[in-house]
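ugh ok fine here u go
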Amino acid sequence: MLFAILSLLMVLAPGKEDTDSLLYQIAAGVPVEIIRVNLASPHVQIGVTVAKGMPHGAESFQRLLSRSGATAAINGAYFSKSTLEPIGDIVIGGIMVCRGWMGTALSITKDKQVSIKRVRRGFGENWAGYETVLACGPALVLNGKVDIKAEEEGFQDPHIMGSTQRMGVGVTDDNHLLLVHARTGVTFAKWAVVMLALHCRDAMNLDAGASIAMNYRGHTLHSPGRELTNILGIYVDKSPPKPEILAALDQPSNKLPPPMPIPADSSAVDAVTINLCSESLGRATEWCPVTVKRKVSRKKLPHFCTVHHAPS
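structure:
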């Protein structure tokens, strides 16, 4: 069998009732570590935790892990080294917390129906009905076949396109989510073959290199060489926490934190007065629940809000 798993080396600390397990295997000649999660278990939930200050904040993996309370976790999506903004969409608890414009997304409904699909580059996806979304990419396997279109998805950085240790996520036909770390350097092409060898129906790449992080049931297997902006967590007999910014929105309106100061740009000749969202670092829309009026240059008009949904 061309893509056979060559050997099963070890299984560590399986969770109760087959909720989760940690596997060490060799797949398509590549040593991998796998956190295998049973999506059919009522004890399991999946969630994303973002750094404080999103979309321009970063924290240590241990701090993110501690705040998340996750049973197991890995690093999430790529992010800009200069701005710290993740490259793709992130939805937590059904609320958009970060808008990206590229890549492939892991999307999960409340009843844990999981899909992995490419987003339309440059277009805002509608994630209505999804509880959790983490977009990164590129796609590796779609509908049981190797399907890599990294350039079309917007990936060009040679550090990303080359061979390196990688982290990825895949879903199998028997309804398991696999969080997979390639322990040796692989190209995207080889990475796709590895995920196919692990019987992934759909699979996508996550952040890699110095961002690689993995923790399983209290044991940190890999610590990243830099702070991260987001992590993907598995929760057994517990629920993913809401980000602080979303928790604030659940409060009565008179208890919301004061609007963040957003400087006016009244000196601009082409200044116009608009409503700016005080919860999302000035990325504005009229329909955000917490807004302040500011004058801004027409050249600086924001296009979307990274926190709140538009009305349906």
